[in-house]
Design brief:
mainly alpha; 9 helices
Length: 192
């Protein structure tokens, strides 16, 4: 098995274990067993558990961005529809049988307060999402401060959907987003 294959197996196993069971409870020995690699190889590729978690989160970040872009692109040419596609994407995700909330919020809740590396990775992911929302909002003629509010609606929907097992949280967030967008466009008609 190549180093790349071993790394991929470790990250796949880690992503599954951490998402299902949590970051804190999964040890390196359990991860080694699930990945089918030796403990020596695991530590050679990832010197610490934090290194594994950071790599898993980076991978999730790339997956999230690709899926979000696909949803936005599929929404068509209307900038408003592209912005609102974020909430449709969230609803589809919330309806997945294995949905257990946002991996980044989960990681921050478990480890972010005690580990600056995890906190940094999570903050960068959330900042990237806010920036993407700002770009989509700008394309729709919506001011940047409203984009931040739209991001908060999406983040709140993620947490609510996970805690309450309520995929409809995305529809409520979208309805609130539509109100914010329409009010913003009515207040700033020259931006539309």
């Amino acid at each position: 098995m190549t180093e790349t294959d071993a790394r991929e197996q470790i990250l796949t196993a880690a992503e599954d274990l951490y998402y299902r069971k949590g970051y804190a409870v999964v040890g390196m020995d359990e991860l080694r067993t699930a990945a089918g690699v030796s403990l020596r190889r695991l530590y050679a590729l990832f010197p610490s558990k934090i290194d594994v978690i950071a790599a898993v989160l980076q991978r999730r970040h790339e997956e999230w961005e690709a899926a979000l872009e696909a949803a936005v692109t599929a929404a068509g040419d209307s900038p408003r529809d592209r912005l609102l596609a974020v909430y449709a994407h969230l609803e589809r995700w919330f309806c997945d049988d294995d949905f257990r909330g946002c991996a980044f919020i989960n990681a921050f809740g478990e480890l972010g307060g005690n580990d600056p590396e995890i906190a940094r990775v999570v903050r960068e992911h959330k900042a990237a999402f806010q920036e993407r929302m700002a770009v989509l909002a700008d394309e729709a003629g919506v001011p940047r401060e409203i984009a931040f509010q739209l991001s908060i609606l999406a983040e709140g929907a993620q947490t609510t959907a996970a805690i309450a097992a309520a995929p409809h949280a995305a529809r409520h967030a979208r309805a609130a987003a539509e109100i914010l967008i329409d009010a913003s466009l009515a207040t700033h008609p020259s931006r539309a």
